[in-house]
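User: Hey, quick favor. My workstation is busy. Could you predict this chain's structure for me?
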Amino acid sequence: MKKTALVIMAAGIGSRFGGGIKQLAKLGPSGEIIMDYSVHDALEAGFDKIIFIIRKDIEKDFREIIGNRIEKIADCEYAFQEIDKLPEGFSVPAGRTKPWGTAHALIQVRDLIDCPFAVINADDFYGKEGFKLLHDYMVNEMDDSKPYFDMSMAGYIVGNTLSDHGTVSRGVCRMGENGYLSAIHETYDIARQADGSIVGKDIDGKPVSVDGDAIVSMNMFGLPEKFLDTLIENFPAWLSEHGKETKSEYLLPAEIDKLMQAGKAKVKVLKDHDRWFGVTYQEDRPVVEKALRDLVAAGVYPDRLYQ
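Assistant: No problem, here it is.
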């Protein structure tokens, strides 16, 4: 059977590791953090390897809090995203402290990847279905012989990804034929209104209506190994255009969208019916804790993920 890897992007965790950082909040009934559930669900779905993208300055703490535990149950490796990891001829502009984004993070795993892989955020709870959908697509359907990158994406219903305590940003998907993605539109300040409608803002700050059944991207993609080479090849051109800015980001959804528009990638949208959870706001925490307790009570997860 074709092997698969899961890449978890965790380099955005702050240096005050464990001091209120939301990615490491103990939310499960036995002190589990969100990444514990992602790893559990990925291994259950059939993934063979877990790769964490972190920063060197948090490596010791990261291993103590989660890495050492995962290494006991899975093939586990680390890649490191640093702000000064740039191609020859480029340097960090004065005043920049922001990381270079999710596509830059993925570049760092190139030497560790020799198979199709899924990528997720460290601080999102995705549920079981997305991992199973992506794993099975990569193993049974992904075709490397096609003249374009054969990709997949777990698509969530926007109403299942909102917070009751503030606005969120989402990549709202425009669907093409046969379940394939035709475009991703970054939409900001999305919230459910008092009348039940969902409204956000486009890149220019203009209000836009979002259909309640719209599919959104939560940065959960199934990708072919060779796609990483294209991210590496395209990064210098991106830096030439945006590298002097202090807050620009080389973003994975944007790069996938560019390839789609150029006919160099097709993304199969695998509709995921699970509810997404995340601690976007401090007020979200008790909601997530209750949701996890309910899933345990329903038998979806054991009381303790790892014995």
